[in-house]
From TrEMBL:
SUPFAM superfamilies: ATPase domain of HSP90 chaperone/DNA topoisomerase II/histidine kinase, HAMP domain-like, Homodimeric domain of signal transducing histidine kinase. This is histidine kinase. It catalyses: ATP + protein L-histidine = ADP + protein N-phospho-L-histidine. Its main location: membrane. CDD domains: HAMP, HATPase, HisKA. Keywords: ATP-binding, Cell membrane, Coiled coil, Kinase, Membrane, Nucleotide-binding, Phosphoprotein, Transferase, Transmembrane, Transmembrane helix, Two-component regulatory system. Residues 275-305 form a coiled coil. GO terms for molecular function: kinase activity. The lineage of its organism: Bacteria, Pseudomonadati, Pseudomonadota, Gammaproteobacteria, Pseudomonadales.
Length: 530
């Protein structure tokens, strides 16, 4: 009899264990199903929102393209690629959602989303055709924007804004329902576990006389595990020990807890991914705005540089032509020499245009130097030639002197000749511009400590107050006297000249007592003798 009761007890316990395992497995499947539905719904919601954001960014790009004439189409192509990827992802998610759909209401809502996706795909294709081929250009300028807005927001008679908003709202509702269903499924799991635990406890009490010595610990462990799971401690695991039936039950319970914990962590991971994606998109948008603002600043700086840097060679060309037109007829050699000087100035003007184009792309490109080693007499002669040309054009007197010790003619200086002459033109142009007729320039050459070439250009102009000297090399700075003497000008010549000299490892400085005249000193390192 005891054996029968024992076998009966064992049979009952086995049946209970199997019931718990089946219930746990079923509950896990139900919970996993609803969690998967919730994950798909949240993912589709994120893709719909991201797709709408990409369309808005495309509209922003179009506005900048039309208003600012920004010809960069890379952002447009990237946005179209993103929208195509999102549409493909949404279609794949919709297919998976259809496979998980069970009720007619689910299938009806999924069909609505599929229909919305088809409209959005057609709209994206239409936008891509319009913006890539620019067939919209055939419309008058007043109607072009309206036609573009129509292409963005409508597909035939369908308002795509309402369509996207309805799709997002529907997806939010479906996500909320899926999450609620998952919560209810988990609740049923907890209820089932608790009920089975209570039943097991009652049976354990009835069979406790026969099985108390061998069954007390496994049952107690099972009860503790269910309590931990009910309280939310999903990391808790039941020790697998005792009779085989209870060991199997413990394993099933632990597996169920592992699946629930993994599902919860997976859902939290998806949430973090969405948040990170939103932050990344926000950072990209801020970066794009910063790039646009920087491009606008560069454009303004470019026009300022153009207005200043084209004036000097143009003035030289005009001055040369005016000199040749004064008086009577001149011999062909004079005309040839004049045309040669005009050609040189025109070449310099072309070089300045190239430099300014480099400046608008990147200020550092202007400092890309082509060095060559020149004997000091050659460098001195080229500098005097440039100063003489500018002085003659302004009806100014030029005086020069050499203050170097004997042997200076054999020394060399390494520099970019074109950029060096550009610096000389900037200095001379400023000296003549702010001088009172009759203007006079004094140029001198010296060698300092056997290491530096020292070139000085002094004028008899209006001078510079001492408190303004530290600011002369700042971009767009012009002193009060300079603005009064010559209202035009943007104050960028000395800035460019100083940066060129620094790139040649030299030093540019200006000295003035503030009363009359100023002296500009240019120091360049001499080439080392091998």
């Amino acid at each position: 009899m005891f054996r029968n009761k024992l076998w009966l007890s064992f049979g009952v316990l086995i049946i209970l264990a199997l019931s718990q395992a089946i219930a746990a497995y079923w509950s896990h499947n139900v919970a996993a199903f609803h969690i998967e539905r919730g994950r798909l719904s949240n993912q589709m919601l994120s893709e719909f929102i991201a797709l709408g954001a990409d369309k808005q960014r495309l509209k922003v790009w179009l506005a900048e393209y039309l208003l600012l004439e920004n010809k960069n189409t890379h952002d447009r192509d990237a946005l179209f690629a993103n929208m195509q990827q999102r549409l493909e992802a949404l279609n794949a998610l919709a297919v998976r959602d259809q496979l998980l759909g069970r009720s007619p209401d689910d299938l009806t809502q999924i069909s609505r989303q599929v229909k919305a996706l088809s409209f959005l795909e057609a709209n994206v294709l239409t936008l891509e055709r319009v913006l890539r081929t620019w067939e919209i250009a055939k419309y008058p300028s007043r109607e072009r924007w309206a036609a573009l807005i129509q292409a963005f927001d409508y597909l035939e008679t369908t308002d795509l804004r309402e369509l996207v908003a309805d799709a997002i709202e529907l997806q939010r509702e479906r996500a909320a329902r899926s999450e609620q269903a998952a919560v209810e499924a988990l609740q049923r799991v907890r209820v089932t576990i608790v009920l089975l635990g209570i039943l097991g406890s009652a049976l354990a009490i009835l069979l406790g006389v026969l099985l108390v010595s061998s069954l007390y610990r496994p049952i107690n462990a099972l009860l503790e595990g269910t309590e931990q799971l009910r309280s939310g401690a999903l990391a808790h695991r039941i020790a697998i020990s005792g009779p085989t039936e209870f060991a199997a039950l413990a394993r099933q319970f632990n597996r169920m807890a592992e699946h629930i914990q993994a599902a919860k962590e997976k859902d939290a991971g998806y949430t973090r991914l969405v948040e990170e994606e939103v932050r990344a998109r926000t950072a990209q948008l801020e970066q794009a705005i910063a790039q646009l603002q920087d491009a606008e600043r560069r454009q303004r700086r470019f026009f300022a540089d153009v207005s200043h840097e084209l004036r000097t060679p143009a003035t030289a060309i005009i001055g040369e032509a005016e000199i040749m037109l004064r008086g009577g007829e001149k011999c062909p050699d004079d005309y040839r020499e004049s045309l040669q000087r005009i050609l040189e100035s025109g070449s310099g003007l072309a070089r300045r245009i190239d430099d300014l184009l480099l400046l608008i792309r990147s200020d550092n490109n202007l400092l890309r130097l082509e060095h060559s080693a020149l004997l000091l007499p050659d460098c001195w002669a080229l500098m005097l030639k440039e100063l003489d040309r500018l002085a003659v054009a302004q009806s100014a007197e030029l005086q020069s002197r050499v203050e170097a010790a004997p042997g200076w003619q054999q020394q060399r200086v390494v520099l970019d000749l074109d950029k060096f002459l550009m610096v000389i033109r900037v200095i001379a142009d400023n000296a003549l511009k702010y001088s009172v007729p009759p203007a006079r320039l004094e140029a001198s050459l010296a060698v300092e400590a056997g290491r530096y070439l020292r070139l000085a250009i002094r004028d008899q102009g209006i001078g510079v107050p001492p408190d303004e000297l530290p600011q002369l090399f700042e971009r767009h700075f012009r002193g009060a006297r300079a603005r009064k003497q010559c209202p035009e000008g943007l104050g960028i010549g000395l800035t460019i000249a100083s940066r060129i000299v620094e790139a040649m490892e030299g030093e540019l400085s200006i000295h003035s007592d503030g009363t009359q005249g100023a002296e500009v000193i240019l120091k360049l390192p001499l080439a080392r003798l091998s």
